[in-house]
Specification:
Bound molecules: 5'-O-(N-(L-cysteinyl)-sulfamoyl)adenosine, zinc ion
Structural class: alpha/beta
CATH superfamily of one domain: HUPs
Strand content: 5-15%
CATH architecture of one domain: 3-Layer(aba) Sandwich
Helix content: 40-55%
CATH topology of one domain: Rossmann fold
Largest sheet: 5 strands, parallel
Mean pLDDT: 95
Number of helices: 14
Oligomer: single chain
Order of helices and strands: EEEHEHHEHEEHEEHEHEEEHHEHHHHH
Shape: globular
Length: 417
């Protein structure tokens, strides 16, 4: 499907000879991410489009966008793919509960998501792939697994669904910190069905669900049905990026079961690693609870923007938190970001400032060391406060803030409000 409009990224003079490192959840260590030269390949787990972009989603995608920008600044090209879970249980449940057509619900929410990503200046993926448009790819991957007897059909006469055999993949729980018993519990909480009779292993994930009355379904060699969740990302990522790509990214709620399950299916099918590094962002909450569609405690990007909040202030709220931390949104976060944005813009439009080169070098160093955006913001704060006589500094630091952090001068639309 169509992604969203491109976002211009200025080139920033100078270079830093340091690898980009991020924290890999599987090894629990900082790891180099992306090659030294050439092309970096990135997959981000996309939205399930049944509720507009909340600040939790925005935090995850802005964090991933910083990695994208840091790679570009390091001279790499970036091949970026993202899925959209445009058919799955929660979407269908919401459509039924609200009496709307599931496709119309998804289409409307995907449009809102695109608008929000543009407002937040998130660089678009080259491939934004919906599950519905990728059905053949998903079925083909399940067929490869079937030839290897890594999937099986349940002996349920009503609904002989297909499952992936997790015992075929080694190290399923590596890096999750979970015992098998704990994993079963988390699996049940996040869409899994550990207790279903007839499964070979309680953690086996559904890969193809036979058609139920009143559910969308498609013909395939596996019977009429629809894909399970994890296998969709295995198939879409492999198709868009190939095996052994650089980074698989998403929120921390995907540490288990989604990412290990997606990786396991892909590994068994291809004999290669899925991704080299698994990056996970912290969870954003409101009033002490994780912000989630099911809890309904959401702050929407589109709502804030409609209320006249500058999207760059929203982006600064998000960047003020390191991508690996869990945090709670409060209104005072927004006022602090608005004050910071005003101070930066004043400094960027001043006739002169303190020398810019050391600022750019420090920004690069902070961001290449595990995407330390809070330090990056502090570096620009300090520069903006210090003042100086260097006439090229304001435009140099402004271009670095734009290229690396995605914080740009007001757009015509925002300025005219
Ligand atoms: N479609 C699947 C991924 S294949 C999915 O998890 N969709 S989602 O709409 O629920 O979430 C989209 C992205 O936002 C995921 O990466 C998820 O981990 C992240 N996310 C969801 N809630 C939060 C939150 N409260 N804080 C931070 N990130 C979140
Ligand atoms: Zn995914």
């Amino acid at each position: 499907m169509r992604a969203w409009s491109p976002v211009a990224v200025p080139a920033v003079p100078g270079a830093l000879d340091a690898p980009v490192r991020v924290f890999d959840s599987v090894t629990s260590h900082l790891q180099p991410a992306g090659p030294a030269t050439g092309e970096a390949r990135l997959y981000a787990c996309g939205i399930t489009p049944y509720d507009a972009t909340h600040l939790g989603h925005a935090f995850t995608y802005v964090s991933i966008d910083v990695l994208h920008r840091v790679w570009l600044d390091a001279g790499l090209s970036v091949q970026f793919a993202q899925n959209v879970t445009d058919v799955d249980d929660p979407l269908l449940e919401r459509a039924t509960a609200t009496g709307v057509n599931w496709q119309a619900l998804a289409a409307g929410q995907i449009d809102l998501f695109r608008d929000d990503m543009v407002a937040l200046r998130v660089l678009p993926p080259q491939r934004l792939v919906g599950v519905v448009e990728a059905l053949d790819t998903v079925v083909d991957l399940i067929e490869v697994l079937r030839q290897q007897q890594a999937v099986y059909q349940l002996a349920d006469p009503a609904y002989p669904d297909w499952y992936f055999s997790v015992t075929r993949a080694s190290n399923l729980l590596e890096g999750t910190g979970l015992s098998v018993a704990e994993a079963e519990q988390v699996f049940a909480e996040r869409g899994g069905d550990p207790g279903r009779p007839g499964k070979r292993h309680q953690l086996d994930p559904l890969v193809w669900r036979q058609a139920r009355p009143d559910e969308p379904s498609w013909e395939s060699g596996l019977g009429r049905g629809r894909p399970g969740w994890h296998i969709e990302c295995s198939a879409i990522a492999l198709q868009a990026l190939g095996e052994d790509f650089d980074v698989q990214a998403g929120g921390r709620d995907l540490i288990f079961p989604h990412h290990p399950m997606s990786a396991a299916g892909a590994r068994v099918a291809t004999g290669h690693r899925f991704a080299k590094v698994f990056l996970h962002t912290g969870m954003v909450g409101l009033n002490g609870e994780k912000m989630s569609k099911s809890l309904g405690n959401l702050v929407f990007v589109s709502r804030l923007v409609a209320d006249g909040v500058d999207p760059m202030a929203i982006r600064l709220v998000l960047l003020a938190h390191h991508y690996r931390t869990d945090w709670q949104y409060t209104a005072s976060e927004l006022s602090a970001a608005q004050a910071r944005l005003a101070a930066w813009r004043a400094a960027f439009s001043a006739p002169a400032g303190a020398p810019g080169e050391p600022v750019v070098a420090a920004l690069r160093a902070a961001l290449r060391a595990d995407l330390d955006s809070p330090s990056a913001l502090a570096i620009i704060d300090e520069w903006a406060l210090s003042g100086g006589a260097d006439p090229v500094a304001p435009s140099l630091v402004a271009s670095a803030a734009d290229a690396l952090l995605g914080i740009a001068a007001p757009s015509a639309a925002v300025a005219s409000r």
